[in-house]
Design a protein that fits this description.
The complex is a heterodimer of chains A (336) and B (435).
Chain A (H helix, E strand, L loop, with lengths): L23 H11 L1 H11 L1 H24 L10 H11 L8 H15 L12 H12 L7 E2 L3 H4 L5 E2 L2 H7 L2 H8 L2 H10 L11 H13 L6 H17 L10 H6 L3 H8 L10 H21 L6 H19 L13
Helix pairs in contact in A: 1-4, 1-11, 2-3, 2-11, 3-4, 3-5, 4-5, 4-6, 5-6, 6-16, 8-9, 11-14, 12-14, 12-15, 15-16
Chain B lengths: L23 E3 L5 E5 L8 E3 L6 E2 L4 E5 L7 E2 L4 E10 L5 E9 L19 H10 L12 H4 L10 E6 L8 H8 L1 H15 L4 E6 L3 H10 L6 E6 L8 H9 L14 E5 H13 L5 E7 L7 E6 L4 H7 L9 E4 L6 E2 L13 E5 L18 H5 L6 H9 L3 H4 L12 H5 L6 H11 L3
Parallel strand pairs in B: 1-14, 9-10, 9-12, 10-11, 13-17
Antiparallel strand pairs in B: 2-8, 3-5, 4-7, 5-6, 7-8, 13-14, 15-16, 15-17
Classes of the chains: A mainly alpha (336), B alpha/beta (435).
Chain lengths: 336, 435
């Protein structure tokens, strides 16, 4: 082509003239994809009800998003995957035995109230999926703590219910837990694979780690929150977790059970509700770990990940504000 | 071995392969040139010519008004046909002198001074000043000003900036490959003028042939080191370059000379050599004409004042839909609205983009606080907060987040997954509050 360019066809805009091809949608869908292994393990252990509950959460979350955006005349942003991801996370945080109305109501709580009422994506203070679950737990305490025995759905006709390892540990102690699982090695390996009672997507540590490490490898999340969170839980569980005094706790049981791995890699790292400064993320992780152990050991609930992350969410803006990033060439402040 | 670099930064596609192997060619001498009277940061020049007057190549046509300024010269021989304001690469209307080329190529007589290096630092600095040399990497800051540090700021090192971190651009690369001795000679002049005995050349590792040539050219010099830098934008920003090479941080709001360093671009060093030896003023420069919307990406030696349209034609014209023409690089350059825009002393490249790569985002999403911009910011700022405050017109609070330390490299905007116009919002905030 020769000089046929017409000047009025030229595109004028300010620099930079190139952009990364990363989008919010790609981030959300990639995170959803990374949850797939853990979800599949949930389906394997808890059967069709796992699919049913999760599907209800996803559908209700996406409907809530659509509804609020429609009512407030905003652009419908279902394609960005954020409502899908909230639904998926919420579903994975439900017991497979939950009656149908719990996923529906808590999805509405998560997306319509926690997220959209606070201004939509980017403006919510609390992690939507976790707040939805907290609402469900407080509203329906019994239904939300009725755990189905893993694999019962596949093998037996009757759905047997049981307690989670953390519940057993809290109510009856380590001996009872070991008696249920045989020996220590068996306990650890069952916890790793996820063959235990619990929320339908939280049990398989191996599958969650695959997804979490994939996200770190892809730089969608950084190591700062998961590592500081897990290390804090491990150390505190070791120091305070034992019945025979200090330094007799079993950190491995604490690390592998409950919603810790799901929480540390997928919930605490939620961009919107965690600090954005790296240093601040370490503070955030340590805070989450401290609160988790405090609740697990001293409070009424056997598990503390959900409340720990929600409580730390309140501090995220404060952490970002007080720590700030180190500015290039800034003079070191002289303290008077 | 880990290469020298700084904290932060981004890795956009380099796209250097288009023109990095194209040797420098002489561009056709244009039938007319538009010489801007202000091609530099600082006071504009006053025209020394009148309409109808005959000028020769190299004749001074603009006289600097003030110390921070630089003279301008005619790049062709011919008749002055107009004096008025014409569009500049940055979109502004700038007072300019238009000269119709008479094809006679008459030059003002320039006598070569082969013994230039024995001249006094003052004499060399005067030649640089008279030649109208400014920073040719794009900022166009008058060079003689950088060479006049106040007494209380002793300078101990000179760095030649061969990073060329902007994607696409290859003019500095080609100068280093084809004229390494001249660049080193320019560096030695700079060191002599400033009285320093430490000289560095910093080159990104994606230009191995340039590094090899520069090392060979500098092999006899004990006090000159050629250093390999990590490929990362904005490695060629003065502050980042000094950090990488000398591990010194220019204080916030300060200048490189505050920490004893003067940085000059490769093209500037080349021009300095030519000015001191041949007394040649800046009447031409090497420009990359590149991009996926150009038929034959090239590196041309171009007369100052040549229109972009002529250069594009000389490179085979447009290819594809060619929707955007950028004067400078894609990260910090200006999209031009007219093909009559001339090449100035600071024009390092012309990039023509096709529709599929020229992003044009009218809509942007909410900030999801992912922190990518914080990681990318070479100045350690929090573009998240600057963007949010500016969007809500709370401009005063931007200062709390070090608004004025931003040098608008655009890294934050490049990485933003919500496609937020962060650097634009920062510019807006800067225009609304006082430092």
């Amino acid at each position: 082509m020769a000089m046929t360019k017409r000047e009025q066809d030229l595109l004028i805009s300010v620099s930079p003239h190139i952009r990364t091809d990363e989008t919010i949608g790609r981030i959300m869908w990639t995170v959803s994809l990374s949850l797939l292994p853990a979800f599949m393990m949930g389906v394997y252990f808890f059967g069709p009800r796992a699919v049913y509950i999760t599907a209800l959460c996803i559908a209700a979350s996406m409907f809530s998003e659509w509804m609020v955006q429609k009512m407030t005349n905003k652009d419908i942003a279902l394609r960005d995957g954020s409502a899908f991801l909230t639904g998926l996370l919420l579903g994975m945080n439900m017991p497979a035995t939950a009656p149908f109305y719990i996923p529906l109501v808590s999805s509405f709580m998560a997306v319509a109230i926690t997220k959209q009422l606070f201004g939509g994506l980017g403006f919510n203070i609390f992690n939507p999926a976790l707040l939805g679950r907290a609402f469900a737990l407080i509203t329906w305490p019994r239904a939300m703590t009725t755990w189905m025995e893993p694999s019962a759905a596949l093998t037996g006709i009757d759905v047997k219910t049981t307690a989670t390892p953390l519940g057993v540990l809290k109510e009856e102690g380590m001996e009872k837990l070991l008696a249920e699982f045989g020996d220590k090695m068996n306990l650890y390996s069952e916890l790793l694979i996820g063959h235990r009672a619990g929320s339908l997507g939280e049990t398989s540590v191996i599958a969650l780690l695959i997804g979490g490490l994939f996200l770190i490898y892809k730089r969608y999340i950084s190591w700062h929150i998961p590592l500081s969170y897990l290390v804090t839980v491990g150390v505190l569980a070791w120091i305070f977790g034992g019945k025979e005094g200090l330094f007799t706790g079993d950190p491995i049981v604490h690390l592998l059970s409950g919603g810790l791995i799901l929480g540390a890699f997928f919930m605490a790292t939620d961009y919107v509700t965690c600090p954005s400064i790296r240093k601040g993320q370490i503070v955030f992780g340590i805070g989450c770990g401290f609160l988790t152990i405090l609740i697990r050991l001293k409070a009424g609930y056997p598990e503390g990940v959900m409340f720990a992350v929600l409580l730390m969410n309140c501090f995220s803006p404060l952490i970002d504000r007080s720590m700030k990033s180190k500015v290039f060439g800034a003079k070191k402040e002289v303290k008077a | 071995m880990s290469l020298l670099t700084f904290q932060g930064g981004i890795h956009p596609p380099e796209s250097k392969e288009l023109a990095e192997n194209a040797s420098i060619r002489e561009a056709k001498i244009p039938p007319r040139v538009i010489i801007q009277l202000s091609q530099h940061i600082g006071a504009p020049c006053k025209s020394l010519v009148e309409i109808g007057q005959d000028v020769k190549i190299g004749e001074q046509i603009g006289n600097p008004e003030g110390f921070v300024s630089a003279p301008v010269h005619s790049s062709v021989s011919g008749k002055v046909s107009a004096i008025g304001t014409f569009p500049a690469p940055n979109g502004k209307m700038i007072p300019s002198v238009v000269i119709e080329n008479n094809g006679a190529d008459e030059e003002v007589s320039l006598e070569e001074d082969a013994d230039y290096f024995s001249k006094s630092p003052e004499e060399l600095k005067e030649r640089i000043k008279k030649a109208g040399i400014v920073g040719m990497g794009g900022a166009a800051f008058p060079t003689h000003v950088k060479l006049s540090p106040p007494k209380e700021k002793p300078v101990d090192a000179v760095i030649i900036n061969g990073a060329e971190c902007e994607p696409y651009l290859t003019s500095d690369h080609r100068v280093m490959v084809e004229h390494p001795e001249e660049v080193i000679a320019g560096l030695k002049i700079l060191m002599k003028v400033l009285g320093v005995n430490k000289g560095y050349v910093g080159v990104e590792s994606n230009k191995p042939n340039a590094i090899e040539k520069m090392e060979r050219a500098a092999s006899g010099e004990n006090n000159i080191q050629v250093l390999t830098l990590q490929v990362k934008y904005p490695q060629g920003a003065e502050k980042m370059l000094i950090k990488a090479i000398m591990d010194r941080e220019v204080p916030a709001g300060g200048l490189p000379m505050d920490i004893g360093v003067v940085v000059q671009n490769v093209g500037t060093a080349y021009a300095i050599y030519e000015a001191c030896r041949f007394k040649k003023p800046v009447i031409d420069r090497v420009v990359s004409i590149t991009g996926r919307g150009i038929t034959t990406p090239s590196n041309l030696r171009v007369r100052i004042g040549t229109s972009l349209g002529l250069l594009i034609e000389e490179c085979g014209g447009f290819k594809g839909d060619a929707v955007k023409i950028i004067s400078g690089g894609p990260m910090m350059g200006f999209a031009v609205y007219s093909l009559d825009v001339p090449v100035t002393k600071g024009t390092s490249g012309i990039v023509v983009m096709n529709g599929d790569e020229a992003v044009h985002t009218e809509k942007f999403g909410p900030c999801i606080r992912c922190g990518r911009c914080i990681d990318a910011c070479p100045m350690g700022l929090m573009p998240t907060m600057l963007s949010l405050y500016s969007e809500r017109e709370i401009f005063e609070d931007c200062k709390e987040y070090n608004l004025f330390d931003c040098f608008e490299c655009g890294s934050c905007t490049y990485v933003c997954p919500a496609k937020r116009p962060i650097v634009q919002q920062i510019r807006l905030a800067k225009s609304q509050v006082k430092p």
